[in-house]
Amino acid sequence: MKKPGALSLVEISAYCNTCPIEDIVQQISEKMPHAKVTAVKQTLQTKMEALDHFKKFSIGISIIILLIGGLIVLTNMMAAVNERKREIGIFRAIGFRKSHVIRIIFLEALIVGVMAGVIGYVFGLGISQFLGPALTGMKAGRIVIDPLLAGGAIVLSALIGILSSAYPAIQASKMDPTAALRSL
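Request: output the structure for the sequence above.
Response:
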């Protein structure tokens, strides 16, 4: 098929909706057996199916990444609670309620989650400026900040931070203040 001037691909489209495209494709295929003859509609449908598969794959990968992120936050918050046993015990001894301790842990998780969302969004913008042209073969355009996407990323990361810190916050609130004061 690598002969100079030889036809290797023919894509057929028609202006009318009732034209027998499949018959036209078949007739041209019979006349040109060495060429790949397809209807543009079929090519588009195949590309759309591939795009749909890629979208499902991307969603699956995103869910896995979110779960891993949640586990990382959980382990970090558990470590932070264990390192701060004395502080939490002192807070409880001077009158902080369990709800106060939970709020402190949640506030820390919220701040970390918001910062992670902002950093992740900015990092994603930067990566897309470099990887986009490499993958598509097109030159990089200007950076477009989508407020809805940015807000969604920040809110989602904050929610993951808060939800993942629920168990450590509850454990911190259950600490016995006398045990923490004995360790001083």
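The two ends are 83 Å apart (CA to CA).
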